[in-house]
Each structure stands twice: as structure tokens, then as C-alpha cells.
Amino acid sequence: MIRAQNVSKAYGEALVVDGVSLELPAHGITSIIGPNGAGKSTFLSMVSRLMPMSAGTVTVDGLDVTRTPSDVLARRLSILRQDNHIAARLTVADLVAFGRFPHSRGRLTVADKEHIDRAIGYLDLTDLAGRFLDELSGGQRQRAFVAMVLCQDTDYVLLDEPLNNLDMKHAMGMMKIMRRAADELGKTVVLVLHDINFASWYSDWIVAMKDGKVRHQGPASQIMRPEILADIYDMDIKVHEIGGRRVSVFYE
Amino acid sequence: MAEDIATTRTLLRPPAGSRRLALTPRQVLVLLAVLALIAAVAYMTVGAKGSWSFVLPFRGTKVWAMTVVGCAIAISTVLFQTISANRILTPSIMGFDALYALIQTTLVFVLGGLAYATVDPQLRFVVEVAAMVLFSGLLFRSLFSGAAKSLYLLVLVGIVFGVFFRSLSGLMQRLINPNDFAILQDALFARFSAIDPTLLVVSTITVALVCLWVVRMLPVLDVLALGREHAVNLGVDHKRAVSEILVMVAILVSVSTALVGPVTFFGLLVSNLAYLIIRSHRNALILPAAILLSVICLIGGQVVLERVFGFDTALSIIIEFVGGLVFIAILLKGKGR
């Protein structure tokens, strides 16, 4: 379980994340939604120790993320942020192999290689395994990074806008992979998503943030209501039920 | 480890043929080693007149010195580019060697030229390296632990630091008397043909120790090249690793600056050539390639300079000219980011 208590981040006077206390359930998919500037990514970065907190504590399975040795956390929690630019010249296989670093410190074992192959296969990258990252499209590269994170094989997988750059087919594929990772491998997946319909369709739990605070949280069916969405996004959003799931329409 | 990764590669890579790569990185390294050897032999033998018992030790010392300097510059540049996760910055561009020059100038300014010149050079060297590690640690550590996100900010800070250090040195050089200045100038000019032999042993030991340190850190280095966020995600203690590497860089820059004076673009030239021909992310391959390239450039360049141009010009001028062109080319191509 990831537990955040009174987590804040301030840049000078501006509070980007304002005293967030949150318990993210273990197992299943949790999506964090909210308008731009709501503090979603910043929150995720603090949970994953990429960014120091101005105040508050975060524990992952009882381990304080600011005090636990980084390599211990790296075997328990993985994070992928939005902008991934790498200057080094890497192939997809090289990149995915880095996911094993927390376990093998650069000495790949047979088991590591199986993990690497599986992660590459999972993200449908087998044909691209030998390609260099700078020869890939944005979507392919995004999938390669997700493969690296999955290859890390941690209980908690945190992804900041994993659907960025993906077309509909691959966005759906990505969410299905997350679903499988949660259902079959028992992982806890936390996503920052902009597409609330994807969040609605695939998440077990949705956290809605606005102005640095958690405004609402609950199962998808509870959050996907016109009045709640209107409160979060300040716009008129209609919600329809299709096949027992809620879909929002907000195009005019 | 190397074997493991190599086998994964062959496992994971689709049956190649699409790659136009003619040589594997290992073959490239062997080729470079042969070239370096040829350059060294050529330097030792071409145009030798007189007794071999004089020529060989005399030139051998120079080859030895250029090898040490080449190692120091190549390793420091590649390490520095690894922690800053880009391929444009070098310790010199960030003002490291200007800092070293400032330390030397300050010593002459405070102690006086006579005292500076009469102190045991090895002791002086150790003191200068220690000061260098201390100050560069203070100045640069915060810059590389994630505080500064923008490459342009880093470059700008580096240039400002460099100018600041050089101006301070310049001021002190104007205040000291001409004799002191002559002693100082002797220490500061880049010259590959007149390397201070007294420092050679201690420099060699220093570089060798740093090399061992680097080898121990090789897997971590590969991860650091992915950038701070990925490195942290993969469990590297980023702050500590960066501090360690900055210490190594400071030591190596001190060695090369103490031996031949500041050279700005040489490291950039060899590191980028190494990235270009190795086409791998692994520092275990890039570092040796950069070292060999740097040795080839220095010794080969010195051969050409001495035999073709008849000492008419300084090697550092040619290197800086070519290196500067490469720097501009990389900047224009925008590939360094």
C-alpha cells in the first residue's frame, strides 16, 4: 500500500501540491486524473522519490521513500515520467535490459534475460528489439520505456501519462497490458491519465485532483458523474453508460 | 558481465543484416589499439638521429606523458558527459581547468614565485589537486544533482564560472611581479612537447587509481547516462554517484592541466569521436575507445607536427581548432541534447 500523509510541494509561494493525504490501494489500477496544473505529476514524482517533498511523508509498504535506500525501493517501485530523452545510443533491447539493474547490478543472469524477453514481447516490440531508440516513432519509444519499467518487475508501477504519443490501438493495448499486469501478476499500477474515458474503462480506483488537492476519489462508477466531472474540469461533461461502463462526452 | 550482455544482445537482436555496422565495437577497439601502437612507434623512431640510448628514453618519456594526459582528458570528458547526460559539455567548457589555473595563480600570488618554484613539485601537485577537488565539489555538485534542469543554464553557468576564474587569475597575474609571472606562465601554457617530467610518476599513479575506481563504477555509469530520473528509478544513489564522479573529474583535470596546461576542446573531440565509432551505450567500450583515440590524436598529431611542420606550430592550436569546429558542428546539429 502507498500511503501519503500531508504531502506538499511548494515553489516559492506557490503550492503545487497542497497537503495531500491519500492511501492508494494495493493491487489493481489506480488512475489519477485532473486538469493541467492540478499537481498530479508532481505528486507522482514525490511518491517515487524523484522529487523532494516540501512537507509530508510517503510510505510504500511501510518504507519511507525519502529514507529507504534507493536500491531497495527500486526493487519495489518503478516510475516512468513523461519526457524521456536519452543522449546515449541505445537499442530497445539495451534499454529494456536496464530494467534488470536493480536486481542484477549490470550482471545479467538467465532469469534476467527471460524477464527482458518477456517484457519486450509484452509490449509487442520483438521486431524492434535491435532498433536504436532514435530510429523509433514516439509511440514505439514510449512502449520501449514502459517495457523497461515492466522488466524492473516491481510490485508498484507508477506511470506518468503512459498514453502520451500512442494511437488508439496502442493506447488500448497499453491499458490492457496494465490490466493484465494488475490481474495476472498482482501488481499495483498507478497512472496519471488525461483521457478520463480510459481511466473510467480500465481503473479500479480513480483519484481526481485539482489545485494541488485531492478533490474526489472512489471507484470509477462514482467519479464518472456529470456533477463531479464538472467540478473537476469546470466544464459541461455528459456521461453515458455503454455496456455497463461509463463514458464521458465533452466535445462541445 | 560483458559476455552476459553480449549474449543477450545476440539473443535479442533480430538476425541482423539491416545494420550497416561493419565492425563490432571490440574490433574497433583492437584497431584503435593497433593505431595507437603505430603512432607511438612512429614517434619513437621516425627521424631519429644519434644514439638510440638517448633517443628512446627521451622520446619514451614524452610518449608516456602524452598517454597519461590522453587518458586523463578522455576519461574526465566521458565521465562528465555521462553525469550531465549530454554530449556537449566538457569539464573545460564548464571552467574546470580555469579553476585549476586559478588555484595555481593564487598559490604563486600568495607564496611568491620563488617559493612556488622551489616547493617540491609533487607536494605542490598534491596540494593543488586537493584544492581542486574541494572547490569543484563545492561549486559543481549542486548543479548536477538535478537542481538545474536546463542544459543551457549549465553551459551558461559554466561559461560564467570560466570567465570569473580567468578574470580573477588575470587580475592576480597583473599584480605579481614579472619574475613570478614568468614562473606562472611556464606552469600554465599548454604544450605537449615540453611536459614536466617530475610530475609524471605521481600523475601516472593518480590516473591509474582513478581508472580502477572507474572500472568499479562501470555498471552505474551506464545507468547514469540515462539521466537522473531513470537512474533514481533504477536504484542508483544519484547524488552520491555524481559526487564521486565529480571528484574523479577534478582529479583527472588537475593531472592533465598540471602536465600540459588547459586544453578546451580536445576532450570534446575524442569523446564524440568515440560515441560515433563505438555506437554503443556501454562505458566499458566507450571509455577505452576515447582513451585510445586521445592517445592516437596526441602522439600522432605530435609526429605530424614535429616531422611535417617542423615544430612550426603548437599541437594544442591545431587540436583546439579542430575541436572547436566539432563543437560548433554538434551544437548546430542539435544532437548533443
Your description of this structure?
The complex is a heterodimer of chains A (252) and B (337). With 252 residues, chain A is of the alpha/beta class. Chain A has 2 domains: 1-76 and 154-224, P-loop containing nucleotide triphosphate hydrolases (Rossmann fold), CATH 3.40.50; 87-153, no CATH class. Chain A has helices at 40-47, 70-74, 92-98, 101-104, 110-122, 138-151, 168-184, 196-202, 220-223, 226-233; strands at residues 2-11, 14-24, 28-33, 55-60, 63-64, 77-80, 156-160, 188-192, 205-210, 213-218, 238-242, 245-249. In chain A, the strands form 3 sheets. A 6-stranded mixed sheet of chain A has the order 6-7-8-3-9-10, sandwiched between helices. In chain A, strands 2-1-4-5 form a 4-stranded antiparallel sheet. In chain A, helix 3 packs across helix 5 (110-122). The longest helix of chain A has 17 residues, at 168-184. The N and C termini of chain A lie far apart (39 Å). In chain A, 46% of the residues are buried. The mean pLDDT of chain A is 86. Chain B is mainly alpha-helical. Chain B has a single domain (67-333), classed as Orthogonal Bundle (ABC transporter involved in vitamin B12 uptake, BtuC). Chain B has 14 helices and no strands. Chain B has helices spanning 2-12, 25-45, 52-83, 96-111, 113-118, 121-147, 151-175, 178-188, 200-224, 228-233, 238-260, 266-278, 283-308, 315-333. Chain B starts with a helix and ends with a helix. Chains A and B meet through helix 2, strand 6, helix 3 and helix 5 of A and helix 1, helix 9 and helix 10 of B.
